[in-house]
């Protein structure tokens, strides 16, 4: 699903021309990830976009983990490394725990979900291993700000962890109030200066209203997809409850018990994953398990062995899946071929197996020749394949098709002595303003999914689309999502001249622009 990465490219160009997330365009997540990517792209203009999007959050994660490691290493270097190494691995590996395709590769989707869950890992480390005081308050404020501006569901789960930390006595009321002030002041300043915070909250509320009724189905999906983790977690929770009852330390508050912390962390993981597709699920239970091991270590050997075994079952499936996917991708990379996508700038830095690439190269002609078949699928609300967006051949087809379209667009502009100053694409993703260095259309959603993120067209959106010089319309393959998106914006597209750039792409030209 490489084209989820294009959302960062789209946002970077919008930010470069002065647009602000949520104020000038709606976004499904917070603005921080987009700004980090945009700043990173200025520092590393030739960066591979997926890796840049994945690694840019290290700017936030690294200082926070440095604080934790510095404190923990005073008493235990082993524990410090046990916290640090997974944090770095999860932050660096651009892979999700779930497998959507058997071929080796990295995951170009769910990037902000991975960023949210690694921030929850860092926050959990701070709550469990930093002493109460002003440093912990500042730590929580920074982590909270990052969570709030990356993924709102991550912030809510982080708030749940913070509440337990308060009730357990690890976070005093004074420290919590100080953290709240340090969290609120930057947001208030940002709101007064830009109006971005309230606009962001409106976006989230609108997104929630468009996705009503999906919580329970997604809850079932999380439980079934992570059955290998949840089953041993239930067994471990029972063990911890038994140990807390049998070996209760009266100096430890009831809500600071091992059972409470583990169950809250697992519940937070389930809540977070109900709103995500693609993530590194439940990784923030690792710091909790390390804290609990410190309590279990003095007990009899048999108890320690059972605890370690169950803890391993809870953590190894996720960690091994993420590591194995990344290592497999690195191992086969020299055997993959890189197609000629020179017109796509950074977006074209991809490689694939030769047979997948060969299939992708013929798909444009196939889709154009058999369009009625795909129209029939769309009439039944079906995609060309059950996992159409997950298939690498279809992602490659989009890239190859876009590369051909850009060549045709260049020829069209040259022959007509014209330069389209603004462009927009009638598709889920739109990297072309950045690729062409043109102005993106304001008030248009990033990640345009008509079933989940796009509501009715507003007057501001209509005026912005009508003012756009060129609208790019993909036709291969014909899908219900593209059909519905075009129907949503139909009134703003009236009167445009249709120019067939290739068999799979049309250019909808603003009526006042003359062609030869």
TrEMBL record:
Keywords: Membrane, Transmembrane, Transmembrane helix. The keyword Membrane applies. The chain crosses the membrane at residues 25-44, 51-72, 78-99, 111-130, 136-164, 176-201, 221-242, 278-296, 305-324. The keyword Membrane applies. This is Uncharacterized protein. The lineage of its organism: Bacteria, Pseudomonadati, Pseudomonadota, Alphaproteobacteria, Hyphomicrobiales.
